[in-house]
Design goal:
Length: 256
């Protein structure tokens, strides 16, 4: 009856066995997807009636996480008191699926991957130094003198910094490295103490810029004056409701 209605042969029939034709295989696969979608829809409807509970494992960049994630997650947990968080503060590239995380925050350009992503915001990047350092070494008016200056470098950043010249061309400058560390917070303190130039996102250095402890230099010469921040999560057909709710909560919090 089904074959007659579709006008195609779905099964190859012999006296001993039956097997799917190419059209039958295609039809079967589509039916599987429809069935899975129905099951997911039923689960979502059931979940809507339940109070969120369970553990959410989340990977967060170190400096941003310590400075800014606590109020957001407290607000979410206030709405859903049965949610527990397990957080990993680390600037390394965490493999969510392999390490069992539900989601993560990524600051910077996203590499090609199987993860899904939602853009949350952009952070401004500043090249800055203390006024005391600039008083000793001279104000920086252009890139010509940069190679004579001391650099406080984040260990995951390249050894050479890139800038735009007056013609918009990218110029690479290698500087004298007075400190290399994997902590933006430590680099901030080192730069505030007058040990060299540092390149930092605004969520780390904005307070120091506002107070005058650091001064921004060559703002117009940065080829990438901002970096994006995304929430990333596995590209799975079904995510636990608690994870989807947190993703939506973070998206709404940043966009407002």
């Amino acid at each position: 009856l089904l074959e007659h209605r579709l006008g195609v042969t779905l099964l190859k029939r012999t006296t001993r066995r039956q097997s799917l034709t190419e059209a039958g295989q295609l039809y079967y696969q589509q039916c599987q997807r429809i069935t899975a979608s129905v099951h997911e829809a039923e689960s979502l409807v059931k979940d809507e009636q339940l109070q969120l509970s369970g553990v959410i494992r989340m990977a967060v960049p170190l400096s941003y996480g310590i400075r800014h994630m606590s109020p957001l997650l407290q607000a979410f947990q206030k709405q859903h008191p049965n949610i527990q968080f397990e957080l990993d503060f680390n600037d390394r590239m965490v493999h969510l699926l392999e390490e069992g995380f539900d989601l993560g925050l990524r600051i910077g350009r996203l590499a090609d991957s199987s993860l899904r992503a939602k853009h949350l915001t952009d952070f401004q990047i500043h090249l800055c130094a203390s006024q005391e350092y600039l008083s000793r070494h001279g104000n920086i008016e252009d890139m010509s003198s940069l190679s004579d200056h001391a650099l406080v470098r984040y260990s995951m950043a390249p050894e050479s910094w890139h800038f735009k010249d007056d013609k918009g061309q990218q110029v690479s400058v290698k500087m004298n490295q007075t400190l290399i560390s994997n902590s933006g917070e430590f680099n901030l303190q080192w730069a505030k103490a007058g040990h060299g130039l540092v390149m930092l996102p605004d969520f780390i250095c904005q307070e120091a810029l506002d107070s005058g402890e650091l001064v921004s230099v060559l703002a117009g010469a940065l080829p990438r004056p901002s970096v994006p921040c995304h929430v990333v999560y596995p590209n799975a057909g079904y995510l636990p409701l608690r994870v989807r709710r947190l993703i939506d909560f973070l998206y709404d919090s940043f966009k407002h």
